[in-house]
Amino acid sequence: MRPDRMEVMTPVGSGVAIELATGVRFESLVGSFNHARGLTTGLVTMAPLAGLPYHTQTFAESITLLKGRVLAGVQGREYELEILDNLVVPNGLAHMVRNLSDTETAVLHVALASDAPNRTIVDRPFLRAPMPASSIGVPGAERVNRFRTAERFEAGPNTEFIDFFNETLMPGLEMSGGYGLFQPGGRLPAHVHDFDESISIIDGEAVCIVEGRRHAMRDGATALQPRGRVHYFINESDGPMAMIWVYAGPSPIRIVVDERCATAEGNPWREGDA
C-alpha cells in the first residue's frame, strides 16, 4: 500500500471547470487533473431553471443538493430534493436534474465512479411519475437518501455520519460514500484506505492531517487522499463542520493505524516517499 502520490487540497475556483449544458457548470475538484484514480468529484452550479437533459453513464453517480431546489428524474421517476438529500444512480440508468427556481442558482455535490467521465444523451421521452416526498428510490435501481430521516452513526468522538451508498446498500455499486458532521473537537482516528478518497468540506472549518502535514480547509475545498496515505480530519473550531466523503471502492473500509503514523516522525512511508 505504499503511496505513489501526495495528497492534494483543491479550493473551489482552483479546479477544472466545464459547461455541461446552457447554464450548467461543473467544477471538478478531484479527478484525472490531480491524478485521482477511479473517482471524479466536484460541484455543479445550475442557473435558474437550467438543467441537464436525460443521459446515461457507464459508471455510478451520486448527487447531493447543497443549495436551492432541484428536480431529479430517473427514467421518468421524479424526486424533488431538499438540502442535503442525496440521489445515487447506478450505471446505465437514464437520469436528469433541473433547477426548479426561476430566481436562484442551485449547487450540487457530484461524485462519479470514474476518472474518465462520459455521458450519452438520451433522446427518447419517459413517462413522468412524480414520487412521494418520502420516497427513498426503487430497489435494484436508484437510491434516495432523505437527510432528515437517514440513519446516523458515530465514526469518531463528537461525530455523526450517514452512509449514502456502498455495495451493501446497493449491490454492484463501484464506490461508497456519505456525509459526516463534526462537532467542536470531533475527529477521526488515524487511518488509511486501499483506494483513493475525496473529502469536500461543505460547512465550517476542518483541519486535514496527513503524515504530519496540516491543511486548513473550508468553503467547499476538497481533499484528494491517495491510496495508502495516513490521514485524519479534526474540527478545531468552535462551531460544527460537515463533509461529504467518497471512496473509490465499493465498501467504506478504513484501516485504523497507530496515531504516531499520522506524524512526521512516525510516517511509515518517509523513506523512499513519493
TrEMBL record:
Gene3D superfamilies per record: Jelly Rolls
Domain Cupin type-2 residue range list: 182-247
One Pfam family of this chain: Cupin_2
InterPro entries tied to this protein: Cupin_2 (IPR013096), Flavonoid_dioxygenase-like (IPR052538), RmlC-like_jellyroll (IPR014710), RmlC_Cupin_sf (IPR011051)
Alphabetical list of PANTHER family matching this protein: LIGAND BINDING DOMAIN PROTEIN, PUTATIVE (AFU_ORTHOLOGUE AFUA_6G14370)-RELATED (PTHR43346), QUERCETIN 2,3-DIOXYGENASE-RELATED (PTHR43346:SF1)
Protein known as: Cupin domain-containing protein
Species of origin: Paludisphaera mucosa
